[in-house]
Amino acid sequence: QVQLVESGGGLVQSGGSLRLSCTASGRTLSSYSVGWFRQAPGKSREFIVSISTGGGSTYYADNKRGRFRISRDDWSDTVYLQMNSLKPEDTATYYCVADTRPAPGPLMVDSPYWGQGTQVTVSS
Known about the structure:
Helices cover 0% and strands 49% of the residues. It has strands at residues 3-7, 10-13, 18-25, 33-39, 46-51, 58-60, 68-73, 78-83, 92-99, 113-114, 118-123.
């Protein structure tokens, strides 16, 4: 099985940027579609974006295209989430998820392969 680890979270001012990374152990991440979700306190887990194996296709939530960009580097076996123009409402724990399906998008919420999350806090 694949174990996922997120990194790159932290405290940033409104308007700033962060790049989150998702790496894996146990299996190579290149074998999976990978997605990013987030969960703010008191709210349900929210789908942001996913990328297929090989990076040929991406699936963005309707209101996430533009400020968020997903990419993958199979050489380093890493998936990235670039976040720009961050707002206080982006404050949440961000999770990466891996899925064996080719392009599951939001259905990745059902995948059993989740990282432990990385905290992103955006100050106003």
